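Hi all, long-time lurker, first post. I run a small reading group and we've been trying to get comfortable going from sequence to structure in the token notation. Rather than ask abstract questions, I figured I'd post a concrete chain and ask someone more experienced to write out its structure so we can walk through it together at our next meeting. Sequence below, copied exactly:
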Amino acid sequence: MEPIQDTFITLEERAEGLYTEKRSKFISYIVPVESEQEALDAVDKYRKQYYDARHVCWAYRLGYHGSETRANDDGEPSGTAGKPILGRLVAANVTNVVAIVIRYFGGVKLGTGGLGVAYRTAVEEALAAAKLKEVIRTEEFRCHFSYPLMGEVMRIVKDSEANIIQQDFRETCSLHLQIRCGQSDMLKKRLENLYGVNLSEIKS
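-- Answer (accepted) --
Happy to help. Here is the structure in token form:
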């Protein structure tokens, strides 16, 4: 069985870049976001800021697998802006980000090939300036058990390097645990093999 992917790469903070081609100026931003709405709000922000620009093209990639995507050419020929922008995000393996490229037309047409190169390069300029960070996905659950099992339960928890968020050792024993997703199943199996231990999910 393949190990669970429990990390992904995103940006620490907004990054920006600039690319010019035949007097057309391409201003690029990559912004870390957590949802589609945040991505669209960022697009709207820059659309208002650069209200006099010819085009504000963009693409986002969301989810720890980067499986939720959307791209927009904003009036450029189909496939010449949004798709190249998204392609650079995929190639860089970054997710939970939106990339926005603002174009000021310089009076010379670039052609479909030239446009694709320009939008792609603008995103590359922003990526080159970006501070990337690795995010570890975690899971939380509760473990309930009787006092005589405390020693064995605590030994298993310590071995797994799980974090104890909260503990209660009054009438019965309860641990609120946090562990990276890739190690969660193994910890749960070890705990469930102890007779008298019950686990419960914590809904976010």
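A couple of things your group might point at:
The chain has five helices and eleven strands.
The domain at 138-201 is CATH 3.30.70.260 (Alpha-Beta Plaits).
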